[in-house]
Amino acid sequence: MTASIVGWSHLPFGKYDNLSVEEMIVDVATSAIADAGLEPKDIDQVFLGHYNGGFVDQDFSSSLVFEAHPDFRFKPATRVENACATGSAAIHQGINVIEAKKAKRVLVVGVEKMSERSGKEVGDILIRAAYLKEEGDIKGGFAGVFGKIAELYFQRHGNQADALAQIAAKNHKNGCRNPFAQMRKDLGYDFCRNESEKNPIVAGPLKRTDCSLVSDGAAAIVLADADTAKASEKAVAFRAAVQVNDFLPLSKRDIIDFEGPAVAWQRAFKEAGMSLDDLDLAETHDCFTVAELIQYEAMGLTDKGQGATALKEGWVYREGKLPINVSGGLKAKGHPIGATGVSMHVLTAMQLTGTAGDMQVKDAKAAGVFNMGGAAVANFVSILEPQR
Predict the structure, then answer these.
(1) Residue 143 has pLDDT above 80, yes or no
(2) Strands (E), the chain
(3) According to a count of CB atoms within 10 Å of the terminal CB, is the N or C end of the chain lower?
(4) For 3-117+214-230, CATH number?
């Protein structure tokens, strides 16, 4: 492929009473361009990943990037939305225009501010990423959708409460090393495993520790074509960038098979000329712990129904053969919808340039990113390596 990441920026995720969407965009856009050693005038196109859906009143947001500097004026700027995969969708659009030779340098920003709405309002907005005609009345909103998925998985493959608690505990422990994470607290397996006043059931078998956080945050990357990237101080190349969409209604799919994610991984490995064994780490979309569990199977780490094996064997832990979500994942890092996919690429680029600090996986030379919109509907896989 022709595109590489040559600069990035990442705000800590959390709840920002003192920062607007516009201010978050300006912050990461300015910092990412500087990190790439460029000026705003050097950018050819802009893509903004912003789900919104009513989280904030300002809905037409693509040109808010221009508030970072007047030199952005008159450049093409496009807002991209694809549910929880919005950030990766924006990145893929940037890659596409570079491969089409419409641009040499592209700025991609992902942003979301969710904390201005009440819990009920957040739930009402998120459920719109499901098929409302059939799924809009599921109790618990979008958590209820994944609660249903967990119930179906348990029915077919046995009770997986231990595995879900192991995923939650793993990711919270990893999040302690991530300075950008919203929750930097090692909750431990016992707390995650047991229902309690502080860890109540949310939907189906899912407890609070099985669900990602309501978050505010932003991240940005600068993409460049291969020739431009050669002159950059750092460059992380895309070996593959694949998008696979599936049917929206759950009723048209065997949802616990995660067929869309599986096809996306298969196509990405083929495009990259690599296999799962070639990866040194992966960032995957643990919006709910059951999603990460089934994604082990979709990426080919285990057979169907055997995702728990990856935990029992220690494969997905920091020192395992394929560390997964060493950032803490969405579970601990937070999940500001439009920013999530961009964040995953930033943190992976840091790993591959040896700049991930306490998160660093030793000798990381190849990594995978999986970002998912809806319940395995919009599926994006990137395979990244340092540009040689």
Answers:
(1) yes
(2) 3-10, 45-49, 77-80, 105-113, 201-203, 206-207, 216-225, 236-245, 281-283, 367-373, 378-386
(3) C
(4) 3.40.47.10
